[in-house]
Amino acid sequence: MADDGRRGDEDDRGPGAAHQVFVVMECLLEKLKVLNYEEEVLAKHNMKNLSRHYFVSSPYLASNPGEQFYMFTIIAAWLINMAGRPFAEPQEYDEPNATVSNILAELRAFGVKVDFPPSKLKSGSGEYVCLVLDRLAEEALRRRGFSFRRPNYPTENTEEESVIEDDAELTLSKVEEEMIEEPDDEEENVMDLEALKLRTTHTEAEPSTKPDEILESTVDAAEWNLEVERVLPQLKVTIKTDNKDWRIHVDQMHQHRDGIKSSLKEANSYLDKLQEDIGKTLEKVSSREKYINNQLEHLIQEYRSVQAKLSEVKERYQQGSGGVTERTRILAEISEELDKVKQEMEEKGSSMSDGAPVVKIKQSLTKLKMEIVQMDVRIGVVQHTLLQAKLKEKSNMTRDMHATNIPEPAAGPF
């Protein structure tokens, strides 16, 4: 259905829309040459020069999708860098979807509206590939400050047409003067008209002597014929023709008209026969078409019904694919949580099976016992010191008591 819509758009654009991509590709190649892509891209990657229709997708042109896609990504990355935005050069084994998405993101950053899916660029050729490269080339040229200008044609000064003397009507004297002034090497044996004229005038000036008797020739007829054949080439009088003479043009027009009439008669007969044959063929085709339509009417109806069912199944598939996508996302989230739980369980299991805590506990107990022994010793020392203090205090108290209980001596008289 999308293909039908696309085909409808091309019909709206005109019959020459299918060939517009050839013009865009030729303009793109000129822009790349201005940017000196031969030395900066082709020589660097050891690639061959691009042809005029390299990125054009046509059944009449040889195609290599892998090579064309790699060339497209390399040139696009170079143009983006030339336009002033940093872009990493793609490698041969990079993910195509990620590379195309990055190129379209940079194209949108230049303010270009992208109204086509990225999958159109994965083939490496076609209208959208040429469009993307052309817009990137324009941005690179704008960054460099280069712009194509219209050619300035020099204004021609219209000179006044000089009145050329009409040489159509030539007099015999003028022809004779031209023949005398411009002798032709091929007409050396042709009799000179001026000399003939002078000879005739000279003979007219001399007094005419009329013979009194009938003249009879004494020359042999065979010798006379030989002399005539020898002199005959010299008796030709040729007048040099001028292409400017209107009489020559008229004669040529008459000749062409006669040729056209004769050709037209012959062509009319062939065209009438061809028309008759075409009419018969059209009648046969129309009758055969009606017969085929009658025979295939039920198949056409079945095809339409199957096509309607196919559209319904496609709609169901789209709805189901949407649910599958949602469930796939949920499954991915659950899988992530499960991975986390598994990782925690592995950590706890490894810690439980490890003997390091037991060793630490034993070391702590040993240290605690040592501290208890030390504490007991200290307690014994303190008790002994306390006992000594108590005994000392008791002895002091006993001594004090004995000191206070001593009887006083009796006082007697002296």
Mean pLDDT: 77
- Topology order in helix (H) and strand (E) letters: HHHHHHHHHHHH
- What structural class do helix, strand and pairing data support? mainly alpha
Give the tally of β-strands. 0
Beta-strand proportion: under 5%
Rg value: 60 Å
Largest sheet: none
Instruction: Give the overall shape.
Output: elongated
Report the span from N to C terminus. Answer: 157 Å
Helix content: 55-70%
Q: Tally the helices.
A: 12
Unreliable stretches, pLDDT < 50, 5 or more residues?
1-12, 159-176, 179-191, 202-207
Characterise this structure:
- The chain is built from twelve helices and no strands.
- It is elongated, with a radius of gyration of 60 Å.
- Mean pLDDT is 77; it is low at 1-12, 159-176, 179-191 and 202-207.
- By secondary structure, the protein is mainly alpha-helical.
